[in-house]
UniProtKB/TrEMBL annotation, chain A:
Domain of life: Bacteria
Domain called RNA polymerase sigma-70 region: residue spans: 29-91
Species whose genome carries this gene: Brumicola pallidula DSM 14239 = ACAM 615
Entry annotated with the keyword Transmembrane: no
Gene designation per UniProt: rpoE
InterPro entries documented for this protein: RNA_pol_sigma-70-like, RNA_pol_sigma-70_dom, RNA_pol_sigma70_r2, RNA_pol_sigma70_r4_t2, RNA_pol_sigma_r2, RNA_pol_sigma_r3/r4-like, WH-like_DNA-bd_sf
Pfam families xref list: Sigma70_r2, Sigma70_r4_2
GO MF annotations in UniProt: DNA binding; sigma factor activity
Keywords for the protein's UniProt record, in alphabetical order: Sigma factor, Transcription, Transcription regulation
Domain RNA polymerase sigma factor 70 region 4 type: 119-169
Family: Belongs to the sigma-70 factor family. ECF subfamily.
Protein name as annotated: RNA polymerase sigma-70 factor, ECF subfamily
UniProtKB/TrEMBL annotation, chain B:
PANTHER family: ANTI-SIGMA-K FACTOR RSKA
Pfam families given in the database record: RskA_C
GO CC terms: plasma membrane
Residues making up the signal peptide according to the UniProt record: none
Record-level GO BP terms: regulation of translation
Organism: Brumicola pallidula DSM 14239 = ACAM 615
Superkingdom classification of source: Bacteria
InterPro entries noted in UniProt: Anti-sigma-K/W_factor (IPR051474), RskA_C (IPR018764)
GO MF entries: sigma factor antagonist activity
Full protein name: Anti-sigma K factor RskA C-terminal domain-containing protein
Amino acid sequence: MEHEELFFLLKKVAAGNQPAFNQLYSITSGQLFAVALKMLKNRDSAEEALQEAYVSIWYKADYYKEGQGTVLTWMVSIIRYRALDMLRSQKVKKEDDLSEDILSELDATETTESGYDIKIEGCMKELDQQQRQAIHLAYFNGLSHSEVVEHLDHPLGTIKSWIRRGLTSLQRCLGI
Amino acid sequence: MNYDNPQLISALAAEYVLGTLRGKARERFEALKFENENVVKEIKYWESHLNEMALHLQPIEPREYVLQNIRQRLGFVGAETSGSDVPVNTGSVRQFKQHKSTQKDKHIVWKWWSGLATAAALILAVLVSKNIKVDTTQQVQSLAVISNEDAQILWSIDVLANDIRVKVTSFVPNLPNNDYQLWIVPASGAAPISIGVMQQSGEFYLSKPVEFDNIDIAALAVSKEPKGGSPNGAPTDVLYAVELALM
């Protein structure tokens, strides 16, 4: 999934090219769906978020500017904000209807090497284990500070501090 | 809070993208996007880096009907899905499981819509021309004021470039066991599109659905819903609606 290929398609999408939109969906929807599913833990809700995201991508394709991340990270932003909105407004169904297979796959893939040449990967590895775990929980599961507290069983102030310091360390590492 | 401090803006942007910036703080920071370009720059910076982490996840294919729903919503699909079993529109995949009742739901929607003309509520809406040449995303593009039968203002709704700002007055009855939900009623006759569940007090922002600027809107509507919002993607009990009038 090369950035240049996606950028080429996105420019066509911005010009209203429907086949390009179909192709963009075909190439990227699995990645975006995995992000939504990981956060929402519910297939129906994740597919609802996916629909909203691709409708948004169609209308906002010309908003993407090179130099502000890759096309794929831009698209991930759109699905994550949609999923976060759904979590905030409690629109996600409470019951978890994901099969154990999918859940274990989602958990396993979080730490799998992506194969992308990404700096964040190395920088995350340099964080304290606790900072890395707190940031991972917030990022991949869409958890608030308080929800991370429930998972890690440490005081709220400690969790906030881990995340804040972890992000500061990340920024320092990314700037090098 | 000093939003001129670059370190503070960067820290807030990081937690905004991560998702740990919540509630009023998130709303305030989102509002800052419209007036502080450094906020936008920092958000883009963190999006470009943090979202690389998502590439660790193995792709999982969604069900096939999702693309067909998207194509339907975007108006790509004409006859190719008519008569098929594919559930369409509404943005709610939950209707996939209920698609046999979709037509019934549409009748219910239009039953309340056609009955609105006789509603006792006093509704006032003013739409400001979108063609005014102002470039700020904080510019109010349109607004609606929804009042009750006693002319008491309940909600004042400002439509901005990317968000919808809602101010709730003290005249809005508190519903401890229900929520109010805001909807777009498309002029095309398609099913209403949810804007979001509304807080019952104060001022808050909702994300503006992408359809808002891309379809003809007949009205905004407020419905009474079970806690958490509509269970089936359609309004349950419409209380008020406002017909937008271009000026």
